[in-house]
Records
---
Amino acid sequence: MKSRITFTLAALMLLSACAGPSGNRYFFPGEIWPDNNHVHINAHGGGFLYDKGVYYWFGEHKTEGENGNLANVGVHCYSSRDLYNWTDEGIVLAVMPPSSGSDIEAGCILERPKVIKNGKTGKYVMWFHLEPKGKGYKGALSGVAISDNVTGPYTYIKAVRPNAGHYPVNVLDIHKGDSPALHLSFDGGSLPANADTLNILGRDMKSGQMARDMTLFVDDDGKAYHIYASEENSTLHIAELSDDYLSHTGKYGRFFVGRFMEAPAMFKREGKYYLMMSGCTGWRPNQARSAVSDNIFGEWKELGDPCIGDTTQTTFHSQSTYILPVQGKPDTYIYIGDRWNPQNAIDGRYVWLPITFEGDRFTIRWNDKWKIEE
Ligand code: DGJ
């Protein structure tokens, strides 16, 4: 009798451990999205990793109020097998105590974390946009952290401005030698006029290039790329990472010069590379842009706004953060964007929408309630 009760209890415990959340069957873009604890998912500016049959969602943990946009807690992770139901895996990279002097001390700005897995080392590598505490957005640094386990804890390694001392593959004559533009400085908020004619790249040659909004992309051959808004946000850089994914190789290109694009998201389909980006208007949404290329280092061709029926031209009131290929479903990709709430950061919402393809172009349409299977 006793052994029967023990067996039943063990079976029940196993069942509840495996069951996880399972109530959600649809995406409801822009609505509250409860996790397994019935708490709205807190992973903004997110990145996704599919590993051993499970999707992982990494993002900025926001707190209440305007100050909630600062990194007061760290990077939050959730896991899911079906993309509708997410289990809270906790804080995987915690900020350090205030006044600890750490680069990632509480109150810094830590945005758009992305995690990739290195096939050679077996390590999980996280990159993110980092701004030291109290300095606004002037730092324009990229932080990197590493873990043996996908759900962490991640160990912070360093923060850099990428590619110090290296010219891009498509360097221009204005970048070489001395020029008055080398002495330009901006306040971290204002945007330079005629950025395409300024030598911001040359100005930052010694210190390394500015890197704010960012994403990561791993190509079919295992090479990884760091894609970030550089040169005072005016120009996008695509930079190759080293074999261990922990540093930059010095090979990079500059694209969309003077177009002020943020929020890059990259994916590959049928051998072509695609980018989705936003304009540059702080937390306010703006009209999306898209581009295609046969080669990651260009030539990139702009394809315009991929959103169809977006009458207010605000990317359906969101800003891109990721485009997720759905595993086991050929040609199925999901647009993932943030609907920021700068007054109460924790109440930011997520806009997930299906992507369709028309010729060379990808398109996104609004849907209040949808599922991949339909
Ligand atoms: C827009 C960026 O895309 C966000 O990640 C964030 O940096 C805000 N600007 C801050 O205003």
---
Amino acid sequence: MSANYEVRGNVAVITLDNPPVNGLGHETRKGITDGLEKALDDAAIKAVVVTGAGKAFSGGADIREFGSPKAIAEPNLLSVILALEASAKPVVAAIHSVCMGGGLELALGCHYRVAQAGTQIALPEVKLGLVPGAGGTQRLPRVLGLENALNMIVSGEPVASELLAKAPGQKLFDKLVDADVLDAAIALAQEKADVRPLPLVRNLKVEHPNAQGYLQFARNTVGAMSKNFPAPLKCIDAVEASMTRRFDDGMRLEREFFMGLMFTPESKALRHAFMAERATTKIPDVPADTPVREIRKVAVIGAGTMGGGISMNFLNAGIPVVILEMKQEALDRGIATIRKNYEAQVKKGKLKQDKYEQRMSLLGTTLNYADLKDADLVIEAVFEDLGVKEQVFKTLDEVMKPGAILASNTSTLDVDKIASFTKRPQDVIGMHFFSPANVMKLLEVIRGEQTAKDVLATVMQLGKKIRKTCVVSGVCDGFIGNRMIEQYSRQAGFLLDEGATPEQVDKAIEKFGFAMGPFRMGDLAGNDVGWYIRKRRYQEKPDMRYSKTADLLCEMGRFGQKTGAGWYDYVPGKRDAIPSPVVNDMIEKHRKALGVSPRKISDEEIVQRLVFALVNEGAKIVDEGIALRASDIDMVYLTGYGFPLHRGGPMNYADTVGLFNVVQAMKRFAKNPQDDASFWQPAPLLAKLAAEGKTFS
Ligand code: NAI
């Protein structure tokens, strides 16, 4: 049973007890209705209090039940709420800590609500592509008014109970207390024991002086902001029904929307991402109770683009940082950039002046390795050159205290090789941040051959503390993300060779949902970066084919926005990408040199070749054990590469298309003379799943 029953005087207390957040799984729901029945049958009981054990009232539906028959088995949440509402004895909800989703809907079915200050109140269903499904859209407007309720339902964001308690005319809480919410609820239950009729939220009316005008405004704003997602607009429709329809009709409409959205690819993608995010922390041979090392102080080597951003993450989390550079000028430049970033945040009102000063006071600088000896973790972010890294790691091995973690932010070099420069390879790990490192959510955690389990566990935990999505990757060239993007870029190049323009490729993939196509992206990041990597990589793999257009572009000095010209032309001071006749001419000449007569390429082919290239390489990465699971790859792409969220990541997208269809498309691409037939051989895992009619998930 995951709800407890106890008697306090003449009040029955039903306590949800389903850690960690009292999710409303089947047993908990049954526990509530059983408890209620017992209370109703006992003549000595005058009233009932419902509360939650531990650190939540209730976080809502039990995600472990998602998609299983248990999720809808009776008593389902709607039945539980109806039973509470229909109770002949008053029911009081004692709300504390977290009250979200189904938890809030449950509380709204009770006759009275007492809340503790500091409780996070939310209906977050929209974040999973859904509308609240157990009366939230009908009952919340009745207690909070149209505007407050709509904001909460459309955003899904939590609001603190003490703020809601101040909303004019609110009927959400009958009482707000600073502590001892259960005692306060029991007292209220006793006070109301004989008061009849029992107040029901369903009997309240939603009023607004200009509802139609307000709803129109909301539809315009929400429609523009959530183009790829149907749920937010459905939330508005459902909330509108709380005004315009009878309660039970509104409930039916809400249910209809809920069921309809449940099967949309957008909601499936969001639910996939939600579960995938949670799965990233699970490492089969490193259990959750693996001991971790304490990280009280961090050192960063190199105050360049990455070093500065990396440092900010720790300063933001209140962890002291010391940055080491070779020259004072480099340090000064790095610190000035950090200041500039913080000052921009202060100017925008996103950071308070005192917080900014507090963060800067945690930052130290040095030119001397001896000053790093008390750091618990050092992250190297120097030039991407194995010789330089060797020097740095040899020195770190000499100066760092025993047990300190030595991390590298390398994006392309072999972490095992770097570890071998030290006499403590078990303490070496990769922490691959993405640029800008203080903004991007993704942190690829590179587990070396010899990385100790507690080192991995420590870095994963620390990554969470600095609010990153941490994905474990084994050692390989490019790790998960960059190894895949290389195949995506190769396809983008082949498309130019075959007849597409950079603009056409970018537009097609942007329409699919990427924030930026590969060529605009190249211009932003600097085309010389890829040039440098290709020079090294294709020396190692001389038979790997790729379009030479990218090299020709760099030979023209067109490195991108920083040189004022790249795949596109740029007007000084502006970021608009203007199609370039010079570049198109270069591409045409290159085609002629290859003897290719250009063909018209459909947007569909462009999208499939770019995305399925990611999928095939991704399948190899899972097969080789570089990624722990396909959903980890989706998280890398959603949080680090701007893959459209409503598609749920490349592997989830492939599942949606159907792996059989993906394989068929690859077979077609392999026949294309300009493409790389060997690349399009489906990865063994992909071929196997497709043949068995299965999916990556
Ligand atoms: P950067 O050139 O902006 O900064 C490197 C800094 O390291 C410079 O300030 C330089 O003075 C300093 N440095 C060089 N040798 C040093 C030494 N021996 N001791 C102390 N300081 C030294 O380079 P960036 O872009 O910050 O890259 C650093 C590392 O991060 C590289 O390994 C790179 O591959 C990796 N990385 C870069 C990303 C990017 O988008 N820029 C993304 C992810 C990783």
---
Amino acid sequence: MYIKKIEFLNFKSFGKKVKIPFFDDFTTISGPNGSGKSNIIDGILFVLGLSSSRTLRAEKLTDLIYNGEKSKNPDNAQVTIYFDNKDRELPVDNDEVVISRKVRSTDSGYYSYFYFNGKSVSLGDVHNYLAKARVTPEGYNVVMQGDVTRIITMTAGERRKIIDEIAGVAEFDNKKERALNELEVVRERIERADILIDEVDKQKEKLQGERDQAVKYQSLKEEKMKFEGFVLLSKLKDAKTELEGVGQEYDAQQEKLEEISSELKQKKDILEEREEELRLLNQRIQKMGEDEQIEVKRRIEEIRGEISGCSDRIEYAGQEIDEIDAARRRFSWKSMNQRAR
Ligand code: ATP
Ligand code: MG
């Protein structure tokens, strides 16, 4: 790869369009002082964006625009370099690569544009393309006036750096340094990640403890519910047994009640009969003599005794009915409670 041609338009001392051809070997440009030889180098630095480490002889980019008389275009300057790329050092499939840069001044400042084979690109893109052909802003692809003298007077270490740069070792050194820096960053990230992992582990342990407790609580709760179920079941069984017992007792009491009721009825009938008999006897007494009256009175006493016996029996039966009634109410209350539970 080599520069075939440079084209200046309104750049520094080149007010008109100036084309300078180069050979694939060695080209010397000579001329009187101030004729613009160094301006050609400025043009190369400008168009390839290499001015960061090599001093472009202008305070600002707009100083590069031709400011002489008869300027047709005082706002613009453009430099174009034509590379021979038959060896494909630049990573594009073209025999010729054209890189161009334009600077345009405006009221508020200036704009600068780069073009690679006619396509608008950024300065970074230009650097990336050139880096593939080992042309870098830090490299010594352009040797400035005074550079040779400076290199001769340099210390061995500084000179070594330049030789490394030219041999391409510096690029690897740079890459190595970048890689080491990245490694350092990664190491720091790993440290941070380790700290995070520690924290997460601690959190995990804490959560594990809480989880175990929750699981234990859950299983104990289930066990408790199970046992409560057993207790309820056994209570239910007891209640059923009791209910059966009460039912039987109720039936028996009912039977007894019926018996007593019929007995009561009988006794009442007898009482009515006796009362009727008494009433008749009283009627007879009124009509009878003394002996007979005595006999009748004795009979009356006898009947009274029987009546009193009957009354006692009725009273006793009434008590028993009350008791059976109370038992029945107790049973009904228990049945309601069971259903409510
Ligand atoms: P030397 O042999 O002394 O190194 P040279 O050939 O390298 O000289 P340059 O430094 O390239 O000369 O050119 C300097 C000339 O460029 C000066 O005459 C200066 O006036 C002219 N010049 C610089 N900037 C501009 C500009 N913006 N517009 C017009 N002319 C300019
Ligand atoms: Mg010069």
---
Amino acid sequence: MLNNIKQPSNNFIFHLLRVLVLILLFQIAKSQDNIPTASSPKYKKGMVVCATPYAAQVGLDILKKGGNVIDAAVAVQFALQVTHPEAGNIGGGGLMVYRAANGTTKTLDFREKAPANSNANMYLDSTGKVIPDLSLNTRKASGVPGSVDGMATAHKKLGSLKWAELIQPAIDLARKGFKISKRLANDLNRTKSDFVKNNQQNAYLINENGWKEGDLLVQEDLAKTLELIRDKGRDGFYSGPVANLIVKEMKSGNGIITNADLENYHSVWRNAITGDYKKYHIITMPPPSSGGVALLQLLQSVKKYPLIKWGFNSDSTVQVMVEAERRVYADRSKYLGDPDFFKVPVDSLINPQYNQKRMENFDWNAATLSSAILPGIVAGYESDQTTHYSIVDGEGNAVSITTTLNDTFGSKVFVGGAGFLLNDEMDDFSIKPGVPNMYGLVGGKANSIEPGKRMLSSMTPTIVEKDGKLFMVVGTPGGSTIITSVFQTILNVIEFNFDMQQAVDAKKFHHQWLPDVVTIEKGALQENCKNILISKGYKLVEKGAIGRVDAILITNDGYYQGGADPRGDDTKLGW
Ligand code: DON
């Protein structure tokens, strides 16, 4: 009898151990496959994923008050200005992709513009050489900011709550202060000497004793600027005291933005560009972003390959994706620029046959040399300077917005008296044909400087539909790696069946034609995969973090599932 009782108990322990060993083996196998594990809470009434917990909370509060995605986006945008100063962004610009619950789409281009007094040679010396740093760390590096106009324009057309109500949370955060994260403390301490060097009188964000996690950051001048924007809308920024302070700041150095440049700034509604990848429909940003065109090209280029069979980050998957990236970035260098100034052959570039043909000359046995790849003939590195946020509301409206100051803390020039940083976006132009910009990207005529022109961007805010329904909202900062990060995140979900958080967590790699190297995050590729690629002639370079993706997935059962990038302080909140 006793034996009979003991027997099942032994069996139970044996089975338990067996299950535990199996779970352990499964986890080890998974980690060897580099497939991250994570689970995410799910929401139905709305979700915000963005770079700081404060801004995410502001966005969620607006949704809970009955605001729609655009209301939440405006509130998040201004809250990020206060709580994520690395990326600004009232002194910068950005791009928005919007999809209404009924399926209609729009994009808003609030990218900065070259000032009227700019010209193609403005960063060259008399011998035609690029003057180091002039397009990056000076007053002359700034394009005319677009973000305030962008937010006002979006709100006017699509917002529902009162504008003032959306700006107030940012004013409160600026005036009362907020506790800074370790990351922001480090970023501020690291940039202190640049702030001092570039702003003899008006350096903000400096703590003589050094910032530490949990310190309170109060920004009174910024609060006053935001109050003017709250009370006067776009005019609170583009005319009156703030505009005058921007122009005064310009005059105190070599800056060229005038009051007329500010008055004349207007964002532009543009039709989204779209393409199909298997049963998914991709809705993304047209030029002056190169990101949307490149993303569609990349997806068309890899479509016919059995990525799912090869597996996530296997040598064959990486090789095909890298070869696609090499070809697409070569096209970017020649054909992409501001469509208001240069005829970008969008339809030809995103044509599926064109991209599949571009892949025909790649050789499985050896890396194609970038020197052997020219832009096709068609019919027609890590930091926090940019930020992305994805928002959905309870009705199913979605918005994907990426904004940037370009470099971390932009030009590091503050607008004295107004409390915010200016962008150094002029470096995104091709300041001399063939000379790489800060991201190593090269360009030519399509992206040369002309007064009033928008500099080419890699920002790739994107929305994906499946069977005609909202499926994913995605985007990231990361300079030239933005495009490939969005590409990989989408494939991680639709080819490799990751959930949203896993897709965001997954380690990434990147190729951009020139320089001819594959940059990889530590741990992205297994040793044997690396060895195979190296033996075929790929140059692998390990790099810190790639991208900072904030995304939302709509699950089969209709829930919102977020992916907030652990590479930053990124936060997902929903209800
Ligand atoms: O618009 C662009 O492509 C660049 N100014 C983006 C810069 C960026 O993403 C930096 N981020 N980490």
